[in-house]
Amino acid sequence: MFEHIKTTTLWFLILLSVFFTYQIWTFQPNYAILKSTEYIDNTQIGEEKKLQQIIRPKQVILHQEGNYFSPLEKTGFLEQFYEGYNGIAIDHFSLVSNLNVYNRYNSDYTIEFIFPTSIPVDALKDIFQMSSNEEFFTSNIDRFILFMEIEQEKEQVYVKFISNDTQVVVKARTNISVSKFKEDVIAATSENFYEVFPFDITLYGNGFKKTVFLPLESHYVNSVTYLAKPIRTDLFKQLLFSDPNFVKQYLQSNGEESFTDGNRMVNILHNGNVLRYINPTFGDMVERSSKDILLTALDFLNAHGGLTNSFYYDSKKSLGSTEEITFRLVIDGVPVYRSNMFDVNNLFEITLQRGTGNQIEQYVRPLFFVEEEPINITKSTKLPSGSFLLEELKNKEDFQSHLLTDVNYGFMMIKRQSFVIFEPRWFIEYNGHWQVVHIVDEDSEAISNGLE
């Protein structure tokens, strides 16, 4: 009897084992339950952008029969011309003699693209079709000129790349249609352009110089108002920290917020309008790669869609062993240079710093974005002519011309709680900073007086 019980129990255990094994083999999870599980939201704050989407010329000048023209409506013009010439094929590179460096007006059909700062050649390769087998002769350029030239009794469109930094001019052949190029330049006679004249700001020697083009006559620029939408600060806990669960929030004595995981830190500044991210790289002895900071910064920003609105590559500089790069807000083709919070540039600038290694160590940006369409366009503001502006600067008692490094008209940003107003002004880059130029124009229309 006892043996019979043992046998029965053994068979029961064997069958139970077979049953559980079968259950394990045939088990399928309840996907409906898994789908309802809350995952970390990977939504970015903006879209990823390519190099050609963040590099824009500060000025585009059309040369025709000794006259120079600039577009009134910058955004549409850039879409038609600059983007239209993106992706052109260029080859047959040659080094131009310094004696011929600024022979830019050797053709009645010429378009000049002037950038706010130098562009690395690696970025040019993303904009144009360039042969990797040919030598380019310089590491960066700050402007290029498309022009026509007769070669073997046949018209051809060429390009000159100019680098004032390295004092090099590179000439190359393009595949641009001659007939289309002529049509584009002739369009300068339409009412969508205003006449400008060249003004040499800085002379580098050997024929190299920084030239900007200023309006021959006074012209009008609209003031525009946009709604301002805040960017949620909690998004950056997920986007800028490797593990949001370890991030702690602190309230500073001045009322400002901070987030930290014990190493990296995010500070919310200026009444919630600006974010500063700090990523200390203690003991980072990694040698910096040859990768330009523009490419490093773009990778960092694309990782969380940081280039909201129309921010474009504007400048870079060295601060000892640290490199800094700036992206500037541009509204309808017009750059924003100052705000009503005069000491806070990061309402309209995104700045990043890279130390001795390859990581971004500091990142400062606005915590709001403006909607795509304006809610109001007010009466145009009259800006005095370029010659009147230069005369006013020259007559200013404490003005020192050698400290002047750039001239441009742009927007003053007036930030309110839920909207921003952009008002046109003349600006100069003076002693390393953009300043508003307050003047009374030729017709005594008050814009105030003096240099801020």
UniProtKB/TrEMBL annotation:
CDD domains to which the protein is assigned, alphabetical: YycH_N (cd15787)
Alphabetically sorted, this entry's keywords are: Membrane, Transmembrane, Transmembrane helix
Record InterPro entries:
YycH, YycH/YycI_2
Matching entries from Pfam families are given as:
YycH
Protein name according to UniProt: Regulatory protein YycH domain-containing protein
Please report the stretch or stretches of sequence annotated as the Regulatory protein YycH domain: 3-443
Q: Where are the transmembrane segments?
A: 7-25
Q: Which domain of life is it from?
A: Bacteria
Q: Does the keyword Cytoplasm apply?
A: no
Q: What is the lineage of its organism?
A: Bacteria, Bacillati, Bacillota, Bacilli, Bacillales
